[in-house]
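Bench log. Compound arrived from synthesis this morning; before running ITC I wanted a structural hypothesis for how NDP sits in the protein. Inputs:
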Amino acid sequence: MRDATPTASHYVDGAYLEDAEGAAIEVIYPATGARIATVHSASGQVVEAALAAATRAQPAWAALPGVERGRVLRRAADILRARNRELSELETLDTGKPLSETLVADATSAADALEYFGGLAAAITGEHIPLADGDFVYTRREALGVCVGIGAWNYPTQIAAWKAAPALACGNTMVFKPSETTPLCALKLAEILTEAGAPPGVFNVVNGLGDVGAALVADGRVAKVSLTGSVPTGRKVYAAAAQGMKHATMELGGKSPLVIFDDADLESAISAAINGNFYSTGQICSNGTRVFVQSGIKEAFLERLAERTANATLGDPLDEATTLGPMVSAAQLEIVLDYVARGRAEGARLVTGGARVEREGFWIEPTVFADVTDDMTIAREEIFGPVMTVLDFETEDEALARANATEYGLAAGVFTADLTRAHRMAAGFEAGTTWINTYNLTPVEAPFGGSKMSGVGRENSAAAIAHWSELKSVYVSLNPTEAPF
Ligand code: NDP
């Protein structure tokens, strides 16, 4: 293993913590299937130690001036950027995503979040509300307390930082549980936050299976839960949070539409379809997996798409020339292959790909289906792999109605040269995150999150502050208090 590999299974109270009592979790490099590390699922003792540390640390952390909390976050951002290469290599080993991606999308994205919320920390303030006769109300934006973050396996560093940065900026402390599939990267974030000056207990990481997440969510000391994961897990975690009336943010799955009109810049639209289906081997929640193409340009679109898809370079993810990595796990590969089989069986036309790549690890060809109809399984269910479905449409009204005909509402995109149509579509999409003439760009400055079954709450941007803090109002009277008797 590389030098950057974390030295223990958990990070609690400012230090690595090992406890071999819990079940062993083998960490597999998806490109080869080789075991690269073993961590242990957190025992009850480890969960208790993490929650106790976060509870102890929270009042003093919240009492620091925002500018001091922000300084810690901004120092952590600098460290992440300085170590980007080694952290990117670790992310590649943890997830299988190619280094050409991880060098620009993971530790760097985490650094952006820490820098942004580090800068915002001193600007988290209340307001003054004048009333009659000189009375007034002022509001205080206060920390929630101990928060729990639970992550999926596709962006282990980014997910941890997108939750930790705003949480810590607001004066909360956090216990974070990574996905059991990718347990390594969040530990590095914890180590770096300590190095940047975060007091012990402010950010803790406990690894483990879903039951560890469930134990965290159920604990009475926890004020807020933020999950990135699938809809079925979201339902469970949201329901468990409701039992304790906890705040909750749910960043869940999607089946997002990308609508391409015949006046669009074709090469840009194809780039967006490629990025929105094959980046991270299709393992991105906001992917535009239902690509609606206006019928007049359909064949030209498919021909050029197939040509460009053939240029994907599958290979050693640690080689920067590689542009497409493996699936994260053998289980996820099987799920995706099963969807490909269903696409064929239900009559979709396979334009390219569709086969497992015969090499060690969990590889599949980038796959495009055309002539897909709205009722096919591959057009309705989230696949979470490199499988693009192309659907034809004739009119704008039809495209919008079909784009919205899904229980999900995470994201949506439109490509057109018609300015008014672009904004009509953006307004009409039932989705939390939308793009015009681009796809899947998620800068920290922009709110990110879903509508409908894709979740509640927003991450990133100043909007996230409202989800990681609570408003207290303070009424101040300058007048005598009267009573009826
Ligand atoms: P899961 O929903 O299976 O798991 C997400 C996390 O929740 C994991 O850490 C998991 O632990 C944990 N967990 C599972 N059961 C419980 C429970 N009962 N209580 C508390 N925690 C629990 O998602 P995957 O990791 O398989 O990730 C893929 C899914 O995530 C996709 O469907 C995708 O759409 C979604 N996703 C959404 C994103 C968004 O921002 N909207 C971004 C990325 C992914 P363990 O892994 O140990 O089972």
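What the model suggests: The first helix runs from residue 44 to 63. Residues 10-252+454-472 form a domain with the Aldehyde Dehydrogenase; Chain A, domain 1 fold (CATH 3.40.605.10).
ITC booked for Thursday regardless.
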